[in-house]
Amino acid sequence: MSGPTTLGELRKVSPGGRVSVKDEMRRNLLCKLEKRETLFPGILGFDDSVVPQVVNAVLSKHNMILLGLRGQAKSRLLRSLTTLLDPVLPAIAGCEINDDPFRPLCKRCRDLVAERGEATAISWLTPQDRYVEKLATPDVTIADIIGDVDPIRAARGGFDLASELTMHYGLLPRAHRGLFALNELPDLAGRIQVGLFNVLQEGDVQIKGYPVRLPIDVCMVFTANPEDYTARGKIITPLKDRIGSEIRTHYPTTLEHGVAITAQEAWTDRRADLVVPRYVREVVEGVAFAARRDKKIDRRSGVSQRLPISALENAISNAERRALRAGETPIVPRISDIYASLPSLTGKFELEYEGELLGAENVARELIREAVGEVFAVYLGPVGLKPVVDFFDEGGTLRIRDDSAAAEVLGQLQRVPEVLEHVTRLGLKAEDPPPLLASAGEFILEGLWAQKKIGRSDDRGFVAAERKGDMDVDLERLERLRRLKKQVN
Asked: How many helices (DSSP H) and strands (DSSP E) are in the chain?
């Protein structure tokens, strides 16, 4: 930044009035509210729930904790709090704890100001410089968070061990005049949590072995999983009592919010010739919604928003690979590409007993089928598709390979009466490129299968709803489940 570079120059342009971090955040937040600005860019789906509570906490000058399952944007929300800090802040150059030039805390800066006076060098801090984040793990020590004696510094400088100049500052003092974020607070050892008491209550830290108190100015924010927080009780009660606001996050409450979040986070702008149909995005998002309500999946561990993000990226990659081999453009994902993204689904949820019996892949396939059926009902539920169903009931079959080129898929679809006439319901026209029409046609057939109006066989593809091939698959799965239950009992 171009501006004052010494304490003397700074004194001419600044009165040096001290404003605490929480007062600064409150002031800037009030300004944003008055101007009706977006408070936390990139945070979607929390406008009517989480954001108002965060605003209240900041206006109340509270330290806060965000409670939520994995993948609920807790860390992103904490990092967004830096938008409430001033664009720049002066500090004594080279200070480990970003000391206020007018009121230095550490021994080194006090001596420096006494020695150089108005010529003391000034540096300028950005909001990112004032944000310190730490992931709590069982091996974190009190020295990491608060600080400790540094015997090497004492030896090199020739200082007595009782001198403040031998202090090694932990992450918390280094967040002086800024934000200190601690992720997964329950994983922090209880004795380390005790070290945070005085900071929350009195606003100062005491470095081990020193009769000195540092009245640091910091806003502390935490994240935790609510299961850890309430069931296992790993956040000790005195610390919970000192946290001003407890705010619960959540997964997207509507499909629209989920699609918007995934569109924002997923890597979908990789190619200019890539087109991702809206119904494909909704099916991918629907998989996550189905997983969060499925009894075969452990709801306590949650289903992260990373699931649809990874699944969409994987589905696009499968479509990209197929299109490059076939030499076709544009690249358009199909429902079969979502099935090909199973590796990005099975590791994103924990299974209950019934789910373990079925297996992660089978559970994931059921989730995709359920999502397809729900999205299909929105687009084509009221539409009469009887000619399509009759085609299969009269013995017709249609096998579409996952790696089939769009022209080949269209040739197959044209055998089925009226199936391509309904692509207009998906926002397409008959003259659209073959990859788009092929994707839409496959979606219609997959939707009919998901609603059990037609069947599907591994050998013959799409068939009539009650053909023996489909029934054999179901009977085989039921028999496998019976055998597994007998083994367990």
From this structure: 22, 11
At 352-375, the pLDDT tens digits run 999 999 999 999 999 999 999 999
Distance CA 197, CA 238 (A): 8
Other CB atoms within 10 Å distance of the CB of residue 367: 23
d(CA 19, CA 332): 55
Q: Is the dihedral of CA 322, 398, 445, 448 positive or negative?
A: negative
Which 3 state secondary structure label does DSSP give 122?
Answer: strand
**What CA dihedral angle connects 479, 481, 485 and 487, to 10 degrees?**
70
| Selection from 244, 94, 108 nearest residue 166 by Cα | 108
What domains appear along the chain, each with residue ranges and CATH number? 7-248 (3.40.50.300), 255-488 (no CATH)
> pLDDT of 14-48, one tens digit each?
876 678 999 999 999 999 999 999 999 999 999 99
Q: Which amino acid is at 74?
A: K
Among residues 36, 98, 45, the alpha carbon closest in space to that of 73 is found at 45
